[in-house]
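Sanity check. The docking grid for fe (ii) ion depends on where the pocket ends up, so I'm generating a full predicted complex first rather than guessing from homology. Inputs follow.
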Amino acid sequence: MTAEEFVRDLEAQNQAVLKRLDPDSTLKPEVQGDLTVLNLLKVALKNEIEATEIASRWLVATDDVEVKMAFARQAGDEAKHYRMIADRLRELGFDARGFDPLAQGFGPLFKYLDSLETTVERVAAGQFTREAIAVVKNRQFIEFCDRAGDQITATLYRDVIEPDERFHHQLGRSLLLKLATTPEAQEAARRAAARTLTLAEELQGAALRTAGIHHAPGC
Ligand SMILES: [Fe+2]
Ligand SMILES: [Fe+2]
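Predicted complex below; grid placement will be based on this.
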């Protein structure tokens, strides 16, 4: 199939799975324990630093200028998100300066992404798919903030972070249109996207079981 057909197909497949991450279908938007905006923002710091790091690793690993600058743009945005979230945490009473979100090491999704060796897989997994997941998770988090009465955090996500993540997904789309032109490339991209979604579902399931977390924001 053409790259256009492939990307349309992959988007449809991704969206079918992402519906399962949607709280309206399977997850009840409930708060358990001390599930607070503050604690969820600490999870967000880890997601943002991992997204910054993986985009940075990939930007130095390619000679393709368009790909390099797409990862550079993403890395800069994720670092900006990190700072904005850290600033918001300080307003909420938590000083993130002495906090290392990577103290426990990188997570399973980061490790999987870091294992990918071709640009088409990286773009399919790290931008096209992961950023689509981020958009869904951020929508859930915005609802959570609204219910918690935290308009400032809700607005930060609604006006800045969520639109940036949507743009990262679009960067992935335009690169996939350029790169997913052969059956081999399309198959590799499809596999990487599927694995990313599976890991995201597993992680969300684990977060739900161990910490009651439904709404951790994505990046
Ligand atoms: Fe992002
Ligand atoms: Fe981000």
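Relevant for the grid: Residues 51, 74, 78, 131, 134, 165, 168, 219 surround fe (ii) ion (ligand 1) (CB under 6 Å).
Also worth noting: Confidence is low (pLDDT under 50) at residues 25-33.
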